[in-house]
From TrEMBL:
This is Trigger factor. The keyword Amino-acid biosynthesis does not apply. GO terms for molecular function: peptidyl-prolyl cis-trans isomerase activity; protein folding chaperone; ribosome binding. The lineage of its organism: Bacteria, Pseudomonadati, Pseudomonadota, Alphaproteobacteria, Hyphomicrobiales. The keyword Isomerase applies. It comes from Alsobacter soli. GO terms for cellular component: cytoplasm.
Amino acid sequence: MQVTETLSEGLKREFTVVLPAKDLEERLTNELVGLKDKVRINGFRPGKVPVGHLRRVYGRSVMADVLQNLVNETNRKIVEDQGLKLALEPQIVFPESKEEVEAAMEAKGDLSYKVSLEVLPKFEIQDFAGLSVTRETYEVPESELQEALERLAQQNRQFSSKEEGAKAEKGDRVIVDFVGSIDGTPFEGGAGTDVPVDIGSNGFIPGFEEQLIGAAKGQELTITATFPAEYGAAHLAGKEAQFATTVKDVQAPQAVEINDEFAKQFGMENLDALKTALTEAISRDYTAVSRRKLKRQLLDALDAQYAFDLPPSLMSQEFDNIWRQVQADMQQSGKTFADEDTTEEEARAEYEKIAARRVRLGLVLAEIGEKAQVQVSDEEVSQALVERARQFPGQERMVWDFYRKNPQALAEIRAPIFEEKVVDHILGSANVTEKKVSKEELMAEDEDEKPAAAASAEDKPKKARASKKKAEAAEPASDTPQTNASE
């Protein structure tokens, strides 16, 4: 084979490859000879089929395999000889001339084709010791634990029917049937039977629960309430609806005593054990928030350290993933760019910056992970897959099989594990300062923490701010380690 580089521009490389006819003939003949002992053809004894006959019967299919193998070998040789790291799989362009292709398929002519490559940029990893980040910590006070216990008790309290004629009060549970309509026309999903409504729980659209106060068993009434402007169903958002409602029962909550017997309802030995479990659960939640903010700081610092050209194809893929989600969100909400005081052009520019940040950080983390020899074990992947399967009760086996049979899907499980391990590796050398903060400080989402690549908050329309945050938080759907960065 003959390989000639025809383009070396930025991260793009192009090569012209010529596969001589004599090489094609040699490969084809060797394959056909090896086929003699494997095929059974009527009229011929095993292993005695003439190569010429095999060529007439199997020549084209065997040559197709020969060409595929030669193309793969050539690609590997180009990458190895040039010392390249590919961003994506090579793009192959075969000649448009049917005569040339047919001649190659018969091994009667050379095959010349082009290979287009997109390579990863080269950059030096900076010293982690120069990175300074702050880990915010929050200790759960006794008062918050008590509030959690009281919420748990409230969520698990029992209700009993009030005496005949008793009226519903705040805190009561009312069992109702209802049929909703807008302008006299019933709407999909607007009816319910034997629906429990806890007055004061804010579990229904604003105004619905309050209008049940004073209602008694057997009473029929019409409740008028307005769906929130940001309601998930676009055809209901902001609409006023009437609900023809029948009260079937009014129930009062029974008192719950928080003691050892209460704790045993949750499989705990006593109340102290329940308190310990609750404290650990609450702490895990706050630790996760702290970790997320710490990671954001670290990635912001890394983003500021590196500037290099990005592979156009990776940029395009990342942007397309983000943009599809943006369009899906807007379609679901029924909003347009004009509704959000922006334009499609401005929004695209915003998300292109996000895509660039994610690709850049992905490349940086991949390079750091490779140099540090960060590995993700099969056990870690299996454990994460089990957790993913548990999110689909009753479908665990189907989810497990899907991921196990799809390498690209399984890579989506592996990628965030790799990313977190690389982040831990960096934090091991970075300057990390511990800072005790209040709950409000820990949970605050500071606009100043947004990536430097984005426009300023003052210039950014509110829709862009909200969707941008979602796009930044999303895990990338990629099986390549260079696109693992998500923050």
